[in-house]
Amino acid sequence: MFPGPLINSTTNDFVHVNVFNNLDEPLLFTWNGIQQRLNSWQDGVSGTNCPILPRKNWTYVFQVKDQIGSFFYFPSINFQKAGGGFGPIRVNNRIVISVPFPKPEAEFDLLIGDWFYDDYKKTRSMANTSLTAYNAIPDVILMNGKGPFGYQMTREPESFTVTKGMTYRFRISNVGSVFSFNFRIQNHKMVLVETEGSYTNQITLRSLDVHVGQSYSVLVTADQNEADYYIVASPKLISTNDSSNLVGLGVLHYSNSKSQVTGPLPIGPDPFDLDFSMNQAKSVRWNLTAGAARPNPQGTFNVSNVTLSQTFILQGSKAEISGWPRYVINNVSYLTLETPLKLADYFVNGSGVYQLDWFPTNSVNDEATRGVSVVTGNHKGWIELVFNNNLDVIDSWHLDGFGFHVVGFGIGEWAPESRSTYNLFDPVVRSTVQVYPGGWTAVYAFLDNPGMWNLRSQLLQNWFLGQELYIRVHNSDPNPAKERPPPENLLLCGQCKFLHLKLEFLMVLIELLAHQHQLHN
After folding, report:
1. Residue 37 to residues 1, 12, 63, 80, 304: CA-CA distances in angstroms?
2. CATH for 102-300?
3. By the 8 A CB rule, do 16 and 31 touch?
4. Which residues pair with 398 in a beta bridge?
5. How far apart (Å, rounded) are the C-alpha atoms in residues 85 and 5?
6. Range list of β-strands (E), 236-307
7. Strand pairing class (106-115; 69-75)
8. CA distance 406 to 434
9. What does the sequence similarity comment in the record state about its family (predicted)?
10. Which pLDDT value is given to residue 132?
11. What is the fold, at CATH topology level, of the domain defined by 308-473?
12. Residue 135, C-beta contacts closer than 8 angstroms, at least 6 positions apart
């Protein structure tokens, strides 16, 4: 299936996903926005899990604890996301929790993303030179794996059938690698209701910017004449026209429609108008009165009077290291190891694998370098993450394990005085946030979830070439209620596999010696 099958769950469900790897290289899946409470063992990134080897399978088991909302999954290593493998995740409310809008007639999952015609391995090889690593442009934008309406290579465009007078929920995710896009439906308004597990203040929109890795829910009422209408996803920061491959096109089809969609596309905002995009982002606010996964209102958990225990100021940029193109954070490009950090942390306290806190969290190194970036996050402390964007594209940052409060956006370099512009009253909580070129974004997160958590750019080339680090949130209490032990089916690799073999050998040796001792006596 392309996209992959829907994972349709309810708050607090345990989800079992048995992944069979029929590729010719190792594979991992990650669950974008699922917080994996007390259980980073299931997060499915290179720092937490050994990969599933070719012709093998492995079962993920995780709980969607205290969450609701719209998310998606995708392959997390080896640039495989550029080859597909992504699919939608819904986490529905429990029946006893009220939803802040009437039940829609139906729900539609809409995964939209840019796409390269070339095989992902060929696209991956483009990372070897600066020209292609920094300037690769996708070929087309797909909607649920289907090409644009009217495009010569499209067999059948994506289409959704609606009945006049009814309201529908669209769960929209940007599963692409490069482009943010503006989403709109011809002649129809949208009511924004949810993003990545948070109910939002309900605002009516003509169009919505969706950045790489983000998910939104909008309500659309079929209140127009019974006809067919364009569904449009046009990329940001690039010029296109109505017939461009890089404009995703689908169809909203009224059940009694007798006419095909025709005419010019609905006009969206100027793709280079970042003021529009930032102002819209600032208007996406938390619904303080609605409950989400729990009956108490979301606004019970506010940030108006928090005491920060840490501030990380992180600058995303690019650099050449030993002649190779890299993306860097504070001039450090992440070096992926064979031994996952979480396993090294558990078995040998990180010894010989990584050095905790050598990464500069508040300064930029003079020289670009590669390294294993692992930093301490204070358990049950509030952290302020500031993302500065020195790139000429809209970057997109994601934190596994948490939802963060998006408190501020700005243009120029962030400074402590920028805090005076923060929204501390009703900042929306999500897990992926955009950072505009030449600008900054600030978020607050409460680090109450012990584990090894990935902080990364969602732009696939950036991530693949080193724009990531890990935040180690440690709770020394061995009580499994505080953090779960490794699963029984834990995969071993790297130094941990060698260590495990040594331990097994020692155990066998001890048993043999004990047996000989008994015979001797």
Report:
1. 29, 11, 8, 26, 25
2. 2.60.40.420
3. no
4. 432, 456
5. 10
6. 248-254
7. unpaired
8. 10
9. Belongs to the multicopper oxidase family.
10. 85
11. Immunoglobulin-like (2.60.40)
12. none
| Phi, psi torsion values for 231, nearest 5 degrees | -110, 125
The per-residue pLDDT for 479 is 76
In angstroms, the Cα distances linking 246 to 92, 178, 214, 236, 463 are 33, 12, 19, 10, 22
How far is the CA of 4 from the CAs of 72, 131, 394, in angstroms? Answer: 10, 33, 27
Place of tokens 């500065």: 388
Please report where in the chains the tokens 């059938």 appear, as a residue. 161
C-alpha dihedral, 207 to 141 to 402 to 361, nearest 10°: -100
Token pair recorded at residue 242: 């109505």
HSE (side-chain half, CA atoms, 13 Å) at 339: 21
Burial 433-459 (b: 16+ CB within 10 A, else e): bbbbeebbbbbbbbbebbbbbbbbbbb
Q: What is the pLDDT of residue 512?
A: 63
pLDDT value of position 300? 85
For residue 60, CA distances in Å to 23, 49, 65, 471, 488 come to 18, 11, 15, 22, 11
- From CA 434, how far away is CA 394, in angstroms rounded? 7
- Contact 192/284 with Cβ under 8 angstroms? yes
Give every residue of the chain whose pLDDT is below 70, as ranges: 480, 497-515, 517, 519-521
Find where tokens 């929790």 sit.
97
Chain Cα centroid distance, residue 3? 16
- Contact criterion met (CB below 8 Å) for 252 and 186: yes
**CATH number assigned to the domain covering 1-97:** 2.60.40.420
pLDDT of residue 365: 96
3-state SS assignment for residue 21: coil
DSSP for 425-485? Answer: SSB-EESEEEE-TTEEEEEEEE--S-EEEEEEESSHHHHHTT-EEEEEE------TTTSPP
HEC string of 197-249? CEEEEEEEECCEEECCCCEEEEEEECCCCCCEEEEEEEECCCCCCCCCCCCEE
**Full-model pTM:** 0.94
Nearest to 58 by CA among 491, 494, 497: 491
Q: Which pLDDT score is estimated for 510?
A: 63
Angle CA 465–473–364, to nearest 5: 45
Q: What is the pLDDT of residue 505?
A: 47
